[in-house]
Recover the amino acids of this structure.
């Protein structure tokens, strides 16, 4: 897809389709176009064919204009970033329902900020273009080739171009995460993920990948992580991707993404219904791949290390049993009361390993608990952190990118619930499963600023639209970008 911003006169832009977001009250460019078309839009609104309500769309053909079609997209009620994003996403999918090859977006009177608005146009276009492929007939390629973002003046066009680059990269990153998530577990194994990580670094100067295999993890005494993969014939890997966009003196942000390529529950076997969806239990890891991809594209001046513990959780004769005690890399012992609480067992060793990089901040991303769906539903990721400022920054990044999280507490009353009579801690405990899981992780993250994102509700959708969402790539990228802005402004001071 080719994106570009332009401030030439709208009717002179070379595109077959005009995408025109507007409410029922025509203003600015929508009004001008309506006048140029002898009130065609007004009559659609009067006849009730187009209401202008957010996310509604309507296609006009046979126009006396340079465009073959005009795609109206409703914006009434799109009063916050979340709703504006939904409206723009509706417009982006409407474009793909037509045979448009080149489209120009003319959005005035929605968001003030062209950087942000253009980024959402590019991101939504990329995510709407995504089609799963890899198992079965290849889908027909989409027709749309170029997207122009129109703005009234030239300086806005420069800002918009930055937004288009950034948003296009986020959309690509989300699609990377979605594709890995959607692939079945017999293809997307821990070794497959390791290969993808090595491939991502091929020919790149600012990305290196290294893979720790099981014997290397044994040497590091990662007994907790290895206790999960022992029951599987697929060997586990610890994937480390190192993106260097800034001077080596700048401390890295470390992202740790859970990648259980299939979670049967192990000996604490899950019920059969819907178990196929446990192929998505690697979406935390997939989001780290997505961010790495987006960083390569945007070349943001930051250092980010992605750590992806990748394992398969299977029952077997040599699988870990409830009651087994394992020793983590940190030296703390864990009584595995439930082998289905395996995410925290792999994350704890990866989080201890993260300490080696002298991190500025560590964020882990995991489809960790079904309980987070009970608490927040499928719209909002759970956020838990040992640092208030970091938590606030992530919440803001979520709001700005329309990829929201909500914070839950990490108080000691909850931590007490993972007490064990036979080890330093148990791997499950009592009520508030999302919080006790995070309390478990918090015992391994005391030496740095840390946040945990529980994406069990947000990483994929079930039902007829079943598929990975690419979340929380937008939130993480917004957070990373906000860090570069503050660092740059520090330099100016
Ligand atoms: N991968 C699951 C979490 C999950 C469950 C995500 C359902 C999405 C939908 C995780 O490994 C798990 O099984 N967690 C258990 C923890 C329990 C045994 C304490 C859960 O949530 O049931
Ligand atoms: Mn599990
Ligand atoms: Zn799991």
């Amino acid at each position: 897809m080719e994106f570009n911003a332009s401030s030439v006169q709208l009717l002179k832009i070379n595109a077959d389709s005009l995408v025109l977001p507007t409410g029922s009250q025509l203003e600015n460019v929508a009004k001008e176009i309506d006048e140029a078309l002898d009130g065609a839009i007004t009559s659609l609104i009067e006849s009730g064919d187009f209401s202008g309500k957010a996310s509604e769309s309507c296609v006009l053909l046979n126009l006396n204009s340079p465009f073959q079609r005009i795609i109206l997209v409703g914006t009434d009620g799109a009063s916050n970033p979340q709703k504006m994003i939904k409206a723009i996403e509706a417009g982006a999918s409407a474009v793909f329902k037509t045979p448009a090859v080149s489209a120009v977006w003319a959005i005035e009177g929605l968001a003030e900020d062209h950087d942000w608005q253009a980024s959402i146009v590019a991101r939504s276009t990329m995510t709407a273009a995504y089609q799963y492929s890899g198992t079965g007939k290849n889908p027909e390629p989409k027709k749309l080739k170029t997207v122009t973002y129109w703005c009234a003046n030239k300086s806005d066009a420069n800002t918009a171009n930055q937004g288009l680059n950034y948003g296009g990269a986020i959309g690509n990153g989300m699609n990377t995460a979605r594709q890995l998530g959607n692939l079945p577990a017999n293809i997307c194994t821990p070794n497959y993920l390791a290969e993808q990580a090595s491939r991502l670094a091929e020919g790149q100067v600012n990305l290196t990948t290294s893979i720790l295999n099981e014997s290397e993890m044994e040497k590091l005494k990662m007994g907790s992580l290895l206790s999960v993969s022992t029951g599987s014939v697929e060997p586990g890997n610890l994937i480390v991707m190192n993106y260097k966009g800034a001077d080596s003196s700048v401390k890295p942000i470390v992202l740790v993404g859970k990648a259980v390529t299939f979670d049967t529950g192990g000996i604490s076997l899950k019920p059969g219904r819907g178990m196929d969806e446990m192929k998505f239990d690697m979406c935390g890891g997939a989001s780290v791949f997505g961010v790495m991809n987006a960083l390569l594209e945007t070349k943001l001046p930051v250092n980010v290390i992605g750590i992806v513990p990748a394992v398969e959780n299977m029952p077997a004769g040599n699988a870990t049993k409830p009651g087994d005690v394992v020793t983590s890399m940190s030296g703390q012992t864990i009584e595995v009361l439930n082998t289905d609480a395996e995410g925290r067992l792999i994350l704890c060793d990866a989080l201890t390993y993260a300490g080696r990089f002298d991190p500025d901040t560590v964020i882990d991303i995991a489809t960790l608990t079904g309980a987070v769906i009970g608490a927040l539903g499928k719209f909002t990721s759970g956020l838990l952190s040992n640092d208030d400022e970091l938590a606030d920054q992530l919440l803001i990044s979520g709001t700005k990118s329309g990829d929201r999280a909500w914070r839950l507490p990490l108080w000691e009353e909850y931590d007490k619930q993972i007490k064990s009579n036979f080890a330093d801690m148990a791997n499950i405990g009592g009520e508030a499963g999302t919080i006790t899981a995070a309390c478990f992780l918090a015992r391994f993250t005391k030496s740095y600023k840390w946040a945990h994102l529980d994406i069990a509700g947000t990483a994929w959708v079930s039902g007829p639209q079943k598929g990975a969402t690419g979340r929380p790539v937008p939130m993480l990228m917004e957070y990373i970008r906000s860090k570069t802005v503050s660092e740059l402004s520090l330099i100016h001071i």
